[in-house]
Amino acid sequence: MNKLSYTGILFIMVLCAAACKKEAALTATADETGYSVPQGTQAYDTTILNLYNKYGTYFLYRFTDKDTYWTPTAWKNSTMDTTGFWSTGYVVTTADTNYVAKQLALIKKLWLSYYSDAFLTKFLPAKIMLCASVDSVYTTYLFNPTRYVKTVKSVGAWYNYDNICVNYGSSAITTLTSSDSTKFLARTNLVFMQSIAGRNLSAPTNAFASIATYANTFTSQALAYAQGIITIYYNNRSPQLDWNAYIEAMVTRSETNLNKNTPNTDLTYQGILNVTKDSGGKIKQRYNLIRNYFITNYGVDLQAIGNAADK
Description:
Number of strands: 6
Radius of gyration: 25 Å
Number of helices: 12
Number of domains: 2
Mean pLDDT: 91
Distance between the termini: 85 Å
Shape: globular
Low-confidence stretches: 1-28
């Protein structure tokens, strides 16, 4: 065998060894997104790995600004311009790892437990950011002297593009009151529904869409209600927007409040199942269709969330 052949064989052996070494370094939970779990070796990392293996979603307590704020059209974190005006958006900080275990337990109890595995597998976003703080940011205009002021409000969760940021990965979780827990339940489940709508993952059925007539121009909310339309009468209307609105109504309002006698000039979801608003019976018909759709297809009663959130 000549020198060239020996050299060629050696080169092939080196390539094979390098390929084997690279393959061994990969983890089963890393893909083209560049994320990988577990991110550490604590007991809660096993919980996070199990959640990934079950639902295909990364629960991350280490992440970059780009991971949460970036979208294809713009970054969504709040920023200040040259005039001192703060854009509407949000800011987060990563979780304190001392509280991740408690935070995961809170998420499971007040959020994930309301859904079946089939529902979560289909509808959970790619990433759940475990945060020490999640703040809604906007600008308040003050006088004497006139000036812009950054206004911050702590919220339980925030949805952006392919991720949901969740609060309470901090010492604040140790002093959580019953009221705080209810607010967290209400916020996280609402944000989850908003993320499903934002990603266009749930479409209205033909039966749901056929009940209402969208070609009409309504001059009052009462006329829209009579058609089974619960979106605001002077805004854009479509079966998809109503489908999303019915879901939001279920997860934010209790059955008691949905059936409460409320003037048909009221633009909220309260009383939409009462005959005062539902004069044509179409709202109740559409409500039952969509509620039963999720019970039949996913084993999930969305109204159970509203009953727990709206106390």
